[in-house]
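Re: that chain you flagged

S.,

Sorry for the slow reply, it's been a week of failed gels. I finally had a moment to sit down with the sequence you sent. For the record, here it is as I used it:
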Amino acid sequence: MSTGKFKFTKASLEALTDLGYHYDTEVRGLCVRANADGTKTFYTYRRVKTQSGFESQPERIKIGRFPSLTVEQARKKAEEINAAVANGQSPLSEKRAYKQSLTLEELFLRYMNHHFKKKRKKVSQTEKDFHRWFGQWKDRKAVAITRDDV
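Prediction finished late last night. Pasting the structure tokens below so you have them in one place:
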């Protein structure tokens, strides 16, 4: 199998032995990465506008593994990503924002340092109460805690 571009089919991907990235001729930006251990993963490779909106940078967005994800499903997902990019959205921006969001313990420590310690006297009791009531949630992202959890 030659590297570069070819039409993805189940048979052609199963027979793929060349390592590296291989691109589909049907959907723009859809590629599959063949690893040395035999795994094959679908990606979409597109240029996405940065936060400023003036520049663009290439992003490789993971879609899923082959064969648990079929070629048709990967094409459909790649087309959805291409549509989002065409509308000016960055598909990875939500994931990046979630990774940068604070945990419940980090928010509590910020609150304690900036507001509570300046005005209250029972700092140690409040910290004990936090760990007693919210200790199991301290490592969770604050944005991931829902009303149903509470």
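What I noticed first: DSSP finds five helices and five strands in the chain.

Talk soon,
D.
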